[in-house]
Design a protein that fits this description.
This protein has about 350 residues and is mainly α. It is about 75% helix and about 0% strand. The termini are far apart.
Length: about 350
């Protein structure tokens, strides 16, 4: 029932966002723009998307390396299938697929794998929010929607900066982080507070992801490269719709898009993806262009990304590194394993106490 409700809410959000995106627009003109686009630009864009996937996979391996050095073949398969699950499952339930697929007990626990994904997400959130705040400075004052997007950029940056601060606290003082978690959740539900704080305890045990300084530098270099290729790819594909975005415009649209798809939605992030792309394009293009070629570009951009991520995931789905049966159940499996790990750590702590005395 819980998953059904999450899926229903995600689909409702997608439907509402898609309706807002298409409301009042000439669907015939959009379809004509889709048909008349120059699809030769899709070829380089597909190569860029593949390079993006490889950079993301390499970067993830750097985070996991202090805990376990995972062979690139397994890492690549888990990354491809995990990202496919992320885009196809509603309400971002696929976020749990990658840590579950890569975990290899007891060498690489679910808590450590989940920690790597959280650290990755926080780094990406900070980078893209900062990028959005900076690129919006180049947008002329008085542009419709500019104050709202600037506020969104600042809020997203503050949220991820707070998450980063919490991760630092959790790494340095596990007990304090667990107590903070319990106090935040306790007013809502004491029972949930006990469960969530226990899971947080297990998660913090897995937060040992501190690579060497050289690896940290490489991680941030790959993060910059990863997002640079994302913005460049969007600029390249836009050429096919006779939309000529400057680099500042392309990275602004990228920042708005990333903020938009953070909203949990239906399968494929449909609706929120298109709405955020059009919101970003509206800062730089006339309304008649946004409503026709811009809408066509947003939908084709969404379709190509979805097709590429799905194709990669399906290619690796039947590899020897992937266990298919439990992908959909990954959220529940991760929660259950975090609870089991928390109980194990607590038992180990209780056993060690008499020896310490």
């Amino acid at each position: 029932m819980k998953r059904f409700v999450q899926a229903a809410v995600g689909i409702a959000i997608s439907a509402g966002a898609l309706w807002l995106t298409l409301r009042g627009k000439d669907l015939g003109a959009i379809w004509l723009a889709i048909r008349s686009a120059d699809y030769v630009w899709v070829i380089p864009y597909l190569f860029i998307l593949t390079a993006i996937h490889l950079a993301r996979t390499w970067r993830w391996g750097i985070l996991l390396e202090p805990v376990a050095k995972v062979p690139f073949a397994k890492l690549n398969a888990a990354s491809a299938v995990g990202v496919m699950a992320l885009v196809l499952l509603p309400f971002r339930l696929g976020e749990f697929a990658r840590p579950y697929l890569i975990a290899e007990r007891p060498r690489l626990r679910v808590s450590a794998a989940l920690s790597s994904v959280v650290v990755e997400r926080v780094a990406d959130g900070l980078f893209t929010a900062a990028l959005l705040v900076v690129t919006l400075l180049a947008v002329p004052e008085g542009t419709p929607g500019l104050p709202f997007l600037r506020a969104v950029g600042v809020v997203v940056f503050l949220v991820f900066a707070t998450l980063l601060a919490f991760l630092v606290i959790a790494y340095r003082n596990r007990g304090l982080a667990v107590r903070i978690t319990h106090r935040v959740v306790d007013p809502v539900s004491p029972r949930a507070a006990a469960r969530v704080s226990g899971m947080m305890d297990a998660f913090i045990h897995g937060l040992r992801l501190v690579p060497s300084r050289r690896k940290v530098a490489l991680f941030f270099a790959l993060t910059a490269l990863y997002w640079a290729m994302n913005g460049w790819g969007m600029k390249v594909l836009a050429r096919g719709f006779d939309i000529h975005l400057s680099f500042v415009a392309a990275y602004t649209v990228l920042g708005v898009l990333v903020a938009g798809v953070m909203i949990p939605a239906g399968p494929g992030m449909v609706g929120t993806f298109q709405a955020a792309t059009l919101l970003g394009l509206a800062l730089f293009l006339p309304k008649d262009v946004v409503d026709t070629r811009g809408a066509a570009y947003a939908n084709v951009l969404w379709a190509i990304q979805l097709a590429h991520q799905t194709a990669l995931g399906l290619f690796f789905l039947f590899s020897r590194h992937i266990r298919i049966a439990n992908i959909v159940e990954a959220p529940s499996e991760v929660e259950d394993e975090l609870e089991q790990e928390e109980e194990q750590y607590r038992a180990e702590g209780d056993a060690a106490a008499p020896r310490a005395k």
